[in-house]
């Protein structure tokens, strides 16, 4: 994939809101979601964000003036999940982007007809945009690993230097921004020598992650080489990997986290396509004191590694602050470019043993944390396991999350000479734990 | 659920092969699969095993003489997956069993018509019978845990006594008996102080497990109490959790097994329903030196715990032995009743934090090993990490699996005064690792 006219920052849309400074969804972005009008029983269908509107791909199906391949892609994306579009492959995704770009840019002869296919974002509700076959969560930020291990007085495990560590996550509890997350109950120990107790999690946390949606998979037994890995990614979103730290500490030996993670995962509704993100690719740089990885995790073409400079921000809105009509309080600001292992390396590793990926599979990057204290992507790091509570505004503090807290993620890319593009918002609210079974 | 006339061992079928001694599929069993005629392009549809035949539920749809609820269940099960049947719930599963029982028993007035809906099992091929949303693999055999930990000179982790440990597994690489399993390649260390190398797995193993198919799920945030857990199970099958021990040892800290497991999982084609298994329920007995579990893992009604006495057997057929036309060599013989945690406890624990199960979800029991040396459900135990190779007949030995080896699982239940019912066969063959990516 190469930069092309759809990345030209000077182009504008006929829709004014798309040209506003700081807008997440200018002409150069065109991310996809699945939506319907709020509170309606309409069919879920694909939509594309532009300014403060959504292009309803269901309504756009009947529009003449799209080339064959773009029209086919629109039809595939007008379904209740985007899997049909994913299966069509990169050429179709590209045709869809370029076709919509033509329809939405200033001077389009079809602007009037396209305007009839717009739905205001404020009037829409979203569903998880793809039917996810498998969800894999990685652990690829060295800063996150170092921050966490320091708290337990241990070194980062030696395999971190050699492979992007990962585990399989839970699909059934993945939902989209706006999710109401029940505080999980479970087993934990209040001190390491006692018997466990059952009760609501006392150390509820978020994890700031980037999600990658697989567009095209591979056959079982046929690994994806690093050089081709990015062609298999449809796009990226923001992902909150909710974590119950007390449950996690007690349960995770020897087979990894289970109930500590599987109660909820929240996705942003919009998937920003890899083509839109091309201006924000960065090279992969190995920390000089770390070993050279094995061949299948190395690429002569550094851009093929699949690293991206995505600005990320975490805020918290307490119930009290929300009742006062105040905005969320910013806690963290970092970039995805700090990640030690890249998306390309994650895919190459995931498939090297013959495991097959499928269209719609979801990869989580693992917590994104940067080298500075204000770049910690989880409360366990930011508050040193709750011992140094963070100020969340108006005199409130948090070691871990309280019921009623809303966690808000934002992400965007900006770079001189290119249009700023955003991921929109990923927010979700903590509900009290239900009673015992 | 209670024992009823469908468990009466004295009843016979009009199909002679169903009444033969040692048959896995008598009138009292009636397990379900999804099948089509071998090598055909027919639609996949549900089928029920009887003797050496399959009742084609697609063909049976048009038969008059089934009660409404049974007819509805047959229609739902005539689809390419059994999920529609699962969603109908326990009353429908029961109606299907009782309806088919009536059609297949001696003296049925519809025997001639049903005979027209039979397909010989030898002429059929099978698909994974359900669309699996999530796959969870447990670790619930204390004997397995002790055997494995002893090899590393460590104690079983203290949480084993308190909860059924589990991790999420990979759905995309689950296939049905007959699967060709590529030996995975990946990273491992040849000695613990060296850097890892990349290459084909040198310590390929199987794990003998029982799989449970979830029939009815639960809402997010609504745990399933132990007393109700069994109502959520549709049925059981045999499951081979293929494991690459060298890759596993290197990768599994801190987040659990990943590439060591996600290249393949093999299921037996037949799902034996929970109703068929009722005569084989056993109570849960806590080892006296182990602690009393927390309330949500205890039940006043011991039968509700969900323990089953299922006889299990592992055999290996080497390529050489196969070429000579010889049968598989028996390695292991054990019972599922030795498992420390039961299926009911697995479900109660899985959902206690609010995680939602869905129809078609798959649970693996974890390796089933019994207290005696010949009851080890994996080669790592049976051969003490390959240091004491097992005799597999004709002078061949195995520490771990070689290319061309076929691993064969069988399972059945037998008890005085009840009909023997079987699970059929779960077999799969190891192929050489593909070249590097």
Automatic annotation (TrEMBL), chains A, B:
PROSITE patterns in alphabetical order: PIPLC_X_DOMAIN
Domain Fumarylacetoacetase-like C-terminal: 137-410
Binding site for Ca(2+): 137, 207, 209, 241
Binding site for Mg(2+): 241, 261, 265
Protein name: fumarylacetoacetase
Alphabetically ordered keywords of this record: Calcium, Hydrolase, Magnesium, Metal-binding, Phenylalanine catabolism, Tyrosine catabolism
InterPro entries: Fumarylacetoacetase, Fumarylacetoacetase-like_C, Fumarylacetoacetase_C_sf, Fumarylacetoacetase_N, Fumarylacetoacetase_N_sf
Record-annotated active site: 144
Pathway: Amino-acid degradation; L-phenylalanine degradation; acetoacetate and fumarate from L-phenylalanine: step 6/6
Main EC class the enzyme belongs to: hydrolase
């Amino acid at each position: 994939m190469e930069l092309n006219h759809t990345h030209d920052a000077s182009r504008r849309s006929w829709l004014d809101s798309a040209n506003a400074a700081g807008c997440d969804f200018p002409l150069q972005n065109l991310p996809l979601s699945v939506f319907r009008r709020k509170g309606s029983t309409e069919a879920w269908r694909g939509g594309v964000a532009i300014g403060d509107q959504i292009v309803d791909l269901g309504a756009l199906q009947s529009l003449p003036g799209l080339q064959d391949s773009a029209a086919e892609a629109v039809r595939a994306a007008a379904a209740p999940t985007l899997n049909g579009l994913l299966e069509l492959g990169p050429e179709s995704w590209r045709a869809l982007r370029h076709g919509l770009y033509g329809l939405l840019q200033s001077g389009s002869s079809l602007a009037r007809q396209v305007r009839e296919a717009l739905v205001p974002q404020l009037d829409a509700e979203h569903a998880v945009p793809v039917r996810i076959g498998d969800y894999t969560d990685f652990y690829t930020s060295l800063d996150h690993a170092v921050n966490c291990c320091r708290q337990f007085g241990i070194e980062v495990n030696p395999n971190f230097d050699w492979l992007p560590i990962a585990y399989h996550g839970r699909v059934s509890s993945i939902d989209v921004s706006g999710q109401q997350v029940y505080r999980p109950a479970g087993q934990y120990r209040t001190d390491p020598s006692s018997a466990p107790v059952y009760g609501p999690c006392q150390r509820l946390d978020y994890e700031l992650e980037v999600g990658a949606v697989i567009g095209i998979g591979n056959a079982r037994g046929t690994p994806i080489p690093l050089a081709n890995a990015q062609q298999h990614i449809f796009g990226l979103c923001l992902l909150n990997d909710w974590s119950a730290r007390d449950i996690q500490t007690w349960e995770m030996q020897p087979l990894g986290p289970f109930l500590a993670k599987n109660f909820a995962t929240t996705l942003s509704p919009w998937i920003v396509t890899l083509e839109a993100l091309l201006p924000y690719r960065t090279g992969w740089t190995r920390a000089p004191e770390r070993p050279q990885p094995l061949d299948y995790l190395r690429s002569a073409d550094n851009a093929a590694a699949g690293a991206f400079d995505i600005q990320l921000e975490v805020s918290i809105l307490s119930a009290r602050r929300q009742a006062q009509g105040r905005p969320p309080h910013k806690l963290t600001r970092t970039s995805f470019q700090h990640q030690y292992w890249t998306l390309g390396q994650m895919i190459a590793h995931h498939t090297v043993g013959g495991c097959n990926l499928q269209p719609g599979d979801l990869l989580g990057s693992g917590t994104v944390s940067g080298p500075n204290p204000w770049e910690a992507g989880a409360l366990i790091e930011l508050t040193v396991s709750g011992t140094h509570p963070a100020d969340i505004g108006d005199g409130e503090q948090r070691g871990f999350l309280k019921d009623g807290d809303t966690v808000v993620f934002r992400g965007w890319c900006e770079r001189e000479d290119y249009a700023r593009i955003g991921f929109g918002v990923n927010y979700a609210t903590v509900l009290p734990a239900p009673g015992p079974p």
